Amino acid sequence: MKLQQLKYMIEVVRGGSFNKAAKVLYVSQSSLSSAIKELENEIGLELFNRTSKGITLTVDGTEFLGYARQVVEQAELLESRYLEKKNIKSLFSVSTQHYAFAVNAFVELIKEADSAEYEFTLRESKTHEIIEDVKLQRSEIGILYKNEFNKKVINKFVKENHLEFHSLFEVNPHVFISSNNPLSEKKWVTLEDLSPYTYLSFDQGEYNSFYFSEEILSTVVRRKSVRVSDRATLFNLLIGLNGYTISTGILSTDLNGTNILAVPLKVDEKILVGWIANSKVRLSRLGTLYIDNLKKVIENYGISKLVK
Q: For 1-86, CATH number?
């Protein structure tokens, strides 16, 4: 087993194909394929499913990738420290539902990563795509929520894809509204209070199931609703239409300004936010650092219901 083979495998996963990886590595596709095949023969495992539609990691391949990343990262740290080679580019990816605290933690990670060169990816994505990203190792970590309504479906997908859900915190739901909204003066609101206003939610694409909705109470019938694909648009519509959305109540004035308020929603519901990762792969140094920063950011928001 050669270190180069491990680097080749990592790049194939990053690029999603042998062809893209070969271009990045400046080798022929046949040479790359041969190197990966030799690695598979040596360890006696098939690392990739190869079909006419492309490649995906096998279950064994996903576990092997976790170890390969650790080995390559440690080797590069040794080279950088003792062989005075050029700075090594740090790599890290996270996929998340549309949460400000996930962005704040990502910023802190970059500040603390201590890397002269890095390529980090933050994907604010659809619920099903978050699970797929972590399953296929496009992202090391995914962030999403569960509640009584969706937990059976989310747990099923997490288990089937050999992932684990790690709880972060549990909160009562809030609505995000404009500071100019007539409801902004209320201590709490009900669904009846919200009925005249436009409901805003995040589009889930082809998996636009109630169970994959990023907002709780997704089965409630609304007279007026708008789906959007990004957080900036949703917040603009909150102000422009005097609309509302349902979330954790955690807002970042640094990211979102002071025009958006969080008001408690009076319902018998809880929101449990957590992170998912591959159950057979140990977190990388950067993955661990991101989770640590995530917990610090959440505590700084005053969330006391961190799940230990």
A: 1.10.10.10
